[in-house]
Amino acid sequence: MTKPRTAILTLSDRSYRGERADLSGPALVEIVKTQGWEITEMLILPDDLDIIRDTLILWADSGDIDIILTTGGTGFAPRDITPEATRHVVDKLAPGITEAMRQESLKITPHAMLSRSVAGVRGRTLIINLPGSPKAARENLEIVLPVLGHAVQLLQDSPEAEAGH
User: Fold this and answer.
1) What is the pLDDT of residue 164?
2) Which of 128, 144, 39 is nearest to 86 (CA)?
3) What is the pLDDT of residue 165?
4) Which CATH superfamily is domain 5-162 in?
5) Closest Cα partner for 128 from 4, 2, 9?
């Protein structure tokens, strides 16, 4: 099984300014490390469309990252623009990922229907928007975790991708 090289991007004005600790990024790191995956980048940025877009492009185009997990900025607040930034950079959307996250999350909370998360592919990198709450970020990552290794195999055009199908 492929061990994806993973980057984690926390998007929060308050965490960026140091007014609130980033709890979601470290929660995602914990899950990723239990999978034996490599963390290649970890960063906290403000809710700024240009900065988020430029960072996603830089990371995805580097060739060093298989999966970018973002946390934060997926709700209804005026500065929640992570999905818009992600749509600007992806070549194709992966709606099944976000559909599965919302479907399973709705079993936990009706607030899941307020998520505007997006997932998509830029080049050979999968980008997934996760909620900003540590609990919801963990729950949503755990929902899609079983398919991410295979997704990376497909993106890398690996012969392993066809095994077992």
Assistant:
1) 54
2) 128
3) 54
4) MoaB/Mog-like domain (3.40.980.10)
5) 9
Residue 161 confidence (pLDDT):
76
Between CA 15 and CA 19 the distance in angstroms is 6
Neighbours of 26 (CB within 10 A): 13
> Alpha helices, DSSP H only, in 65-133?
82-89, 95-106
What residues contact residue 154 under an 8 Å CB cut-off, 6+ apart? 161
C-alpha closest to that of 44 among 22, 68, 26, 63:
22
Phi-psi category of residue 108: left, alpha or beta, with phi > 0 → left and psi -120 to 50 → alpha: alpha
Q: In whole angstroms, how large is the CA radius of gyration of the chain?
A: 15
Q: How many helices (H) and strands (E) does the chain have?
A: 6, 6
DSSP 105-124: HHTT-GGGGG----EEEETT
Q: Where are the domains of the chain?
A: 5-162
- Which residues are CB-contacts of 165 (< 8 A; sequence separation ≥ 6)? none
**Consecutive sets of 10 residues in the chain, 165 residues long: mean pLDDT of each?**
89 97 98 97 98 98 98 96 98 98 97 96 98 98 97 91 66
Predicted confidence at residue 87, as pLDDT, reads 98
Across the chain, the runs of DSSP E, i.e. the strands, are 5-11, 38-45, 67-71, 92-93, 119-122, 125-130
